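User: Hello, can you help with two protein structures?

Assistant: Certainly.
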Amino acid sequence: MRGDDVTTTVEIATGFLAGLADRDWSVPAGPLEWSCRDTGVHVADDLFGYAAQVAVGPPDSYPPFEIVVGDAATVDGLLLVIRTGGAMLATSVAAASPDARGWHPFGVSDPAGFAAMGVVEVLVHTHDIARGLGTSWTPPADACAAALARLWPDTDPGPDPAATLLHVTGRAALDGTPAPARWRWYGEVPG
């Protein structure tokens, strides 16, 4: 995946979420224990963190920072932080050598892997927030298929890549198979 994929995904997701800004974001985000607001902060933090992994490439951990969105920030302000994190990741991926590497608990990865991780975070957590806010959102099929190809290379995306992505990330049953209770992606650089 490329930086442009991150940009497009973030634009689609934050555009959708902006239409839900007047709802109560203090409720749980779908199946998560986090509130919708805290889930949004988590997405922003991951986007900034992945950008750092691509740009700096620390060998065995994340840099010791965490994104904080002040309590007085509106939903629009939170979405601005998410868009900023997306821009940072997209820029880092676009500028990085394909040989760049960064640490992740699920395997040392390359810029394309971190782009895919960022896309998955945005897609599945936008879905979680939508559920928490009493509506539905289907992630775009092309972004889901690309993320599945990079992070779950042995998974057939099937005719509905969004349903498959929601399944492999523990959010939905698929063709009668319950969602896994535990899941992970495979960020290692393909061999």
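That covers the first. Now for the second protein you mentioned:
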Amino acid sequence: MSDQTAIEAHAEPGEGHSPAAWAAVIIMLVAIAAGTLFFWLDIPALVWISAAFVPVGALVGWGLAKAGYGVNGPKYTPKEH
């Protein structure tokens, strides 16, 4: 087994290191943090608006993955660690 083959055989399947995954996680993280803050400040309307952004983040990630920015997409270029 050559070195290149060994590297390819041991390569990670992506682990979500793509623009689509990062965008989805950041949107959902900000929504949850804002919702927590608004819950603490006792502003129920903004808590529910923040909660509505969690599925929006998932849809943005899905849409970017379908647009080619996912792990196996043509517009994604993996970076070396």
